[in-house]
Amino acid sequence: MKRGDFVWIERGEVKMRAMVTLASPNGNSLMVMFDGMFCGYVSMMPLLRSDGIYRDLIAGNPVSVKKIGDEGLPKTGDTKGGLLSVAHGVCPDCGSTEFEMRNYSEMWREGDIHCAQCGKFIRKFDAG
Q: Residue 22: helix, strand or coil by DSSP?
């Protein structure tokens, strides 16, 4: 697995689409980003592979991680992907791929990214 890969994470009956946001060169440690809550984690989960099994870093519970093909990727205009749609460059409300910076501070080099079409706040920007 590498940064930017879309994966299915699964534990028991819970299965969720996620994106690898950080990955060690050998693939033994990952940080995955997802929408909502998964096994007590909100939006992100650190994973460590030991003996071929990924486990969440805090509780040590096993988590299945499988790379997904194109059929599982968010499509342009997919408004049900939330964070994953934003990471894929699509507004989760209107499906637009155009974004704009608002409230940019030269002093702090920070600002807010909004959808250029509907105005939805997407995320903070920090040039730091």
A: strand
Q: Where are the beta strands (DSSP E) in 78-127?
A: 99-105, 110-115, 121-126
85: helix, strand or coil:
helix
- The tokens of 15 are what? 């299965």
b/e burial code for range 5-41 (CB count within 10 A of at least 16 → b): bbbebbbeeeebbbbbeebeeeeeebbbbbbeebbeb
What mean pLDDT is predicted for residues 39-44? 88
Start-to-end CA distance of the chain, whole Å, equals: 28
CATH architecture of 74-126: Single Sheet (2.20)
The DSSP code for 62 is B
CA 10 to chain centre: 15
User: Residues of CATH 2.20.25 domain(s) within the chain?
Assistant: 74-126
**In a 3-state reduction of DSSP, which class is residue 45?**
strand
**pTM to 2 decimal places:** 0.57
